[in-house]
Amino acid sequence: MFTSQTSSFQDSIDVEERDDFDSEEITGYIQKTQLNSYYTIYLYQGTRSEAAAENAAWNQRRADSTTSLDDFSLTLIDSSLPSEAEPELRTYISRRLSKGALLGGMGNIATVDLSIPEQAVGCYCCLVEQERSPEQPDADGNGYIICFMGGSEKWLNLFRLELDKYVQGLHSSLQTPELLNLESEVRPYLSRWYEESVMHIHRVVQLVQNNISFLLHAALSHTLVEVNNSDERTKTDVSRFIKAASLQGLSQQDTTTASLCKAISEDTQSDLIIDCSTSPPTLSNAVSNRFCDDWSQAFLNAAERCNPFLLRQILENFKLKAIQDMNSLKRLVRQAEMSHYALFRSCRFLQGCGNGDVLLQNARAEHSDMPEACSIITVLEEFLRDQSQAHA
């Protein structure tokens, strides 16, 4: 029993040996201290729209950086790519548009071959459409295409939601085709995409270091986290980390999270407080368990490699293992209602997984309207308390 659990846990942590990441990709990344990242923004216009006709003169001034086809034109506004690589990207984007593969507001991630040191690179691109105007109803298809390049396709896929949200944050700044705020707002924003959308998990692990297990436990147990004596970026990073590590929205029953939060609010559980006035920060009301302690080393190893993509994959595997254990406990609880042996197996399972407190907390919230299941959970809670006192 314990051997199989240990093997499964090790398989979950050792993502380097799995197909999630090629060994060549990881080796190449370790040799670099910083991944090269690029951005590009294009003006996209439907050739039949009035807006395109009004801006024909502006496009003419940039004829060398404009690609025009029957249904649309694509004009370069700004890019951090080498001059020889940008036309290759524009050709790729034009082909995607011709096939209808880029939809407004939906990011698309693929591998592109460009004249850059990496040659093949992951590319996130998104069409940000202009809002529909009563005066120009046919201008609905016009807008901007934003591209972020760095790492590989499967690496960027790990941060798809963050990239979508980051692009949405630029929407209010994209008002006119001339983009008079290019140097003051748009360019600085685009140039920070990698730091803001990808590196936040790495920054949090570097911040708390060996205390990362306490943040993992707080995320799983829905414990509120308060950050004091820090800048807004650090507070935002920690909040995003907790959200990314939590299981909110992944439960099979929508009412579980609400029930759990209500149960925690009625409990005496204290918030986790991170005081950043010291280095490393001081944590108060910190709680962890063997499950989170074991996973923390994988996070620290990936942080030492400066690999935010591997960190994200480890985080996803951490959540997957927690969900698998939750499902296993639910099956055992149902069986234990009719079998004393299943109750014994439940005790052994909780003893071996190292995450019993979190699993039982979630199980009680999910089975709050099932008296027989709650009775089983009460017995299991008493078993864990007795085990904890015995080891103390």
What is the count of DSSP helices, taking H or I runs of 4+ residues? Answer: 18
Q: What would you call the shape?
A: elongated
Number of strands: 9
Calculate the terminal CA-CA distance, rounded to whole Å.
24 Å
Helix content: 40-55%
Whole-angstrom Rg: 25 Å
Strand content: 5-15%
State the strand order across the main sheet: 2-3-1-6-5-4
Give the class from helix and strand content and strand pairing. alpha+beta
Task: Please render the helix and strand layout as text.
Blueprint: H1 2-13, H2 23-30, E1 38-46, H3 50-54, H4 56-61, E2 66-68, E3 72-79, H5 86-98, E4 108-113, E5 120-129, E6 143-149, H6 153-157, H7 160-168, H8 182-191, H9 193-197, H10 200-208, H11 212-220, E7 225-228, H12 232-245, H13 255-266, E8 272-275, E9 282-284, H14 290-304, H15 308-336, H16 340-353, H17 356-366, H18 371-391
Parallel strand pairs: 7-8
Antiparallel strand pairs: 1-3, 1-6, 2-3, 4-5, 5-6, 8-9
Helix pairs in contact: 10-12, 11-12, 11-14, 13-17, 14-15, 15-16, 15-17, 16-18, 17-18
